[in-house]
Predict the structure.
Amino acid sequence: MCALPVQRIVKQVSKLAVPPHLLDYDATVAGFTWEAARPWLDGLPGGNGLNIAHEAVDRHVAHGLGAKTAIRWLGKTGERREFSFADLAQASNRFANALGQLGVLPGERVFVLMGRLPELYMAVLGALKARCVVTPLFSAFGPEPIATRAEMGDARVLVTTPELYQRKVQGLRERLPGLRHVILVGAEPVDGPGVHGWDALVDACSPDYTIAPTDPESMSLLHFTSGTTGRPKGAVHVHAAVLAHAMTGRYALDLHADDVFWCTADPGWVTGTSYGIIAPLVNGVTNVVVEAEFDAATWYGVLARERVSVWYTAPTAIRMMMKLGADAVRGHDLSRLRFMASVGEPLNPEAVVWGQQAFGMPFHDNWWQTETGGIMIANFAALDILPGSMGKPLPGITAAIARRTEGGGIALVDDPLVDGELALKAPWPSMMRGYLHEDERYRKCFVDGWYLTGDLARRDAEGYYWFVGRADDVIKSSGHLIGPFEVESALLEHPAVAEAGVIGIPDPMAGEVVKAFVALKPGFEAGEALRRELLGHARKRLGAAVAPKAIDFRTNLPKTRSGKIMRRLLRARELGLPEGDLSTLESDEQPSTETSADASTQPGTAP
Ligand code: AMP
């Protein structure tokens, strides 16, 4: 992290292509209330509450924007399809009707596991209309993360493709007795209990649907995220969150009616739903969806050909583009592009400055997390950027730096540039309303009316926030949050593994990559063959996005008196950092005689 401002990027509002929505930060913050912003939304007709899908789609049709392109989908093989708001309204109505036909009830969970296909967007919006709860799963997850989340979340319906179903889910059906319906998008028919083809089921349903009264506080999305210990956490979000999506789309991403917006995040993660689906549609802009995985040359082509005006991407992708150099940018006509933003992991100051050099405008870093449901801290179009800083809190959001006190409370840190935990004053509309089935874990996140984010940060004298690191052991690799416990559990399933400790180690592209330290059971020998076997085992169980990229063997791992593996110490030793307080260390590690592979030679996963 960079503690002091480097090369301040001064904004001249008069030179911006479009006057930003948020022109005067201090005045907007001072005058903003969530109540006053509420009329940005319509609410369901007849005062019947608030439904995300109505705000995202149907109300635009009611306002005469039915013919406007809502989603422009670019397929992997060059196919291109446009869906107007009216098309999307009808397609999501069909899906809502299909759920009704299957007897799926409001509140039941509809899981989606697939790449960025048009049906994913129809299913998410249709399920929200039916007042079901949507849970996106990342399509690169292996069977184990899928099963854990589907079990915890009580998946009733799964929308996926025949290929993903056969490869990852079919073998899990016995573990998922509550999964009554599987809807397959794609040509190949697959037999099985409750397995339906999308075309036969959904396309046959009526395109008319009236959303039933929806309590704004009813559950809309259930997003799984990782913690240091135990199973993943199911962050519960509600329909009321849509006000925050509307507001942040307007102020942090500066979306205007004639924008063409592209969010590169996958809807398997929270950015891909909040900003890859909801925020752009709620703000009535055209949302570009690219099915293909990252490829720098293709991405420049998309920005140019589709005349993207607002682009929301991630540091790993930016770093990969930087590697190709600024000349690769110059070959494309990016004259329509006017605002670039980044999220998900620390954005190095060089990347912000590179944006300025290569694109003629900086990347605007912003910060949020699954639990916050929407952007909380951002660099804004009209505000100067201090490269390396995450920016300032959104209107309606109060942030602070907090230190936990011995009495179980917190003390807010007023001194600029002093580290502490990033805290947000509760509540705000998109704040999670719970961790599914884990009230205690949820309650512990809130102290004295503040939500404690688990991130360490500092605030400078001007009010800009700077990311320092995580307060816990979770790993951020290519923007994906990975819980070490989930990886350790998968490794422990292998008959050779007695103990496993998993950490993140810095990687120039992916931010961090997952590295495991493993102690073997008697009778097993550390060596290259076993290392490859364990890497393969983890990859098969967890999927490429979560599995470790490197494994080192140890004869014993450092543990506390209560037997907990000290990941902090593993990490400090791996990186040559100070070992810190060792008073709880009970048994220490011993290196194995086997020589270790250099993890830095392993490539990170694509963003
Ligand atoms: P997730 O819940 O998967 O979206 O991950 C949220 C976490 O990603 C945050 O708690 C941070 O640790 C990290 N993160 C998100 N945005 C940023 C950012 N702009 N700078 C640094 N870290 C970030």
Observations:
- The CA atoms of residues 249 and 279 lie 5 Å apart.
- Residues 473-601 form a domain with the GMP Synthetase; Chain A, domain 3 fold (CATH 3.30.300.30).
- Confidence is low (pLDDT under 50) at residues 1-5, 595-607.
